[in-house]
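Please check the following.

. . .
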Amino acid sequence: MPRGGARTVSGPPPDPRSLKSAASMEKGGWRTLPAEGRPGAPPEWPLTEPTGRELELWDDLWGKPQALAWEDMGQELEVALFVRTLAEVERPDARVDVKKMVRGYLDSLGLSVAGMNRNRWKIAPAAEEPPAAGPVAAAPARRPSARDRLKVVPSGEGS
């Protein structure tokens, strides 16, 4: 086993809010995925005959924002292997080593926060819908400032 030195996933994941990461974002290091997810039907199942649960997971995963990146990188097989492993882990008698595999898939496919950061992906904020026509909302109350606590003293009274 090698000693010392950097490992592929050593150290904290990059933070898109940090100044150092912001500099790399300007170089195009981060990819913003649309909050709406991937449109359209999922790709064809690449493995042997799927179970009903596997197809359910497959359809759900291919609607996520990360699916756009998987499609660009041709990761259909990796996603299918994750789905098959995840369906196995859902069983009550699932082995611990298989559960660890699922955790690795979550990170590599960007389905966990750490995985999103390691892949340098972020999800765009969801588009807000305009407020429905109805009663006009009152303006929010102004918070008192330090200036509001000061008392005006007429000249000559404070000395």
